[in-house]
Each structure stands twice: as structure tokens, then as C-alpha cells.
Amino acid sequence: FFPQVDSANAGRVLASDAAVFLKKSGLTDLVLGKIWDLADTDGKGILNKQEFFVALRLVACAQNGLDVSLSSLNLPVPPPRFTDTGSPLLLSGTASSDVPWAVKLEDKAKYDAIFDSLNPVNGFLSGDKVKPVLLNSKLPVDILGRVWELSDIDRDGMLDRDEFAVAMFLVYCALEKEPVPMSLPAALVPPSKRKPISVPGAMPLIPSSTSTKESHQSLPPVGILAAKTPLTQ
User: Fold this and answer.
1) How far apart are CA 188 and CA 209, in angstroms?
2) CA 137, CA 105: separation in Å to the nearest integer?
3) How far apart are CA 47 and CA 194, in angstroms?
4) What are the residues facing 193 on neighbouring strands?
5) Which of 214, 169, 160, 186 has the alpha carbon at shortest distance from 91?
6) Boundaries of each EH domain copy (predicted)?
7) How far apart are CA 148 and CA 127, in angstroms?
8) Does CATH place domain 2-72 in 3.30.1300.10?
9) Do the beta carbons of residue 181 and residue 149 sit within 8 Å?
10) CATH architecture of the domain formed by 105-192
């Protein structure tokens, strides 16, 4: 992977090049930002080979549901997976329109009933309306933050009917003590979202971003209890 990013053979990787490459992991910007902070130890915006390896290792940990922390570095994990960003489905790495949706029909009907009971506006629920439902599960705030991150697939701060079903599915999985994934598996992407335009693949990323949409959604980057703010937008 290193020669792919260090094409000039300089022995180091710039933040912009690393960001484009790490984005291919399918992990959320929040997780990638955390990985960058841990790898770029002195905050110089450049990774040497060893630091880049740390970033790769942390990507692998995140993809396998492990904690993104330095203590995870010694855990046995398979190598990280990266997809071609030209792929129409960045989240899964395959153009998987034929993968059946993980949300079963009978469950979807239940989730739809909850959705309708929350008085959606124009087919959407704001974070303020979804937040009490999530908190009602009594799951830790960091887990709920990740559920929101994964279910708000188009990053508009609101959930439509299908995104809400993804959120509910993840909450019930977490209540069954199943780990909430760091990136949305292909089977969980709603069929309605399996279009090239639905995935913000080319957004600028870590360590800083100039895109107003991006900076709006990742307000404030620190001290947010692992993404508590998206719930309250």
C-alpha cells in the first residue's frame, strides 16, 4: 500500500494523499479522523512509513469492529481492505445492487410504524426526533453516535424511512450484544441508496476540510463523546 500512496518515493506520505487513500476503506470520516490523529503523533500533517503502517493497522481494527486505539495495534486482525473509489458503492467495495437487504420485511414494517409515529416531515425525521428513540435503548452514547453516523447515509442530518430502518436494525443488533460495525456493510445499505450519487466518496477529508457541508456535519471535532453532535443537529 505504501508505494501506492508514496508515488514519488519520498519515504513519506502527505495528508492529502493519505486522506484520499484511507477514504477507500469505507470508514466514516469521524473514524478516519481519529485514525489520522493517532498515526500522525506530532501533528505535522505527514506520515513516515512506520506511521502509515500504524494508520493501516488501525483501519484494519476499525473494519473488524475493534476499538480504534493504540492498544488495539497488537491484536491479530486481517489486513485492511480498500476499494477503488470509482466503484459505485464505496461503502461496500462492490456494486452490490444484487445483495439482499439485511433488514427483513416484517422488521421493516415494525420500523416503519415507529417512523410514522414520530411525525416525519416530508418523509424525513430530524436528529431531534430520532434522538429520544435512540436514547431509549439505553445504549452507550458512543455506540448511538456510531449508529447515527452509519444510518445517515447521505449525511443530511436527517433520516428517511430506509435510513431509520438501518438505525433501528443497528440498535437491535447492539442490544443483542452484537458489535456495531465501523463502516456500513453492503447488505445493510438500503436498495434505495445503492446509487453512485448516494455515497459522498469524493469529499475532502482529514486532517482539515474546506467543504462547508463537511465542516458543518463534523462540528466540533473534539469532545463530542464519539459523535454525539450529529444526533442533536
Assistant:
1) 28
2) 22
3) 34
4) none
5) 186
6) 1-83, 107-195
7) 9
8) no
9) no
10) Orthogonal Bundle (1.10)
CB 54 within 8 A of CB 24: no
- pLDDT tens digit sequence for 119-146: 999 999 999 999 999 999 999 999 999 9
Q: Residues for the chain: how many in total? A: 233
For residue 212 the three cell numbers come to 462547508
Q: How far apart are CA 115 and CA 75, in angstroms?
A: 40
CA–CA separation, 29 and 104 (whole Å): 29
**Nearest CA among 98, 64, 95, 92 for reference residue 78:** 64
Per the confidence metrics, is the pTM higher than 0.70?
no
Residues 106 and 188: their CA atoms lie apart, in Å, by 16
Cα-trace Rg, the chain: 18
The tens digit of pLDDT for each residue in 90-116 reads 444 444 456 788 898 999 999 999 999
Where in the chain are the domains? 2-72, 105-192
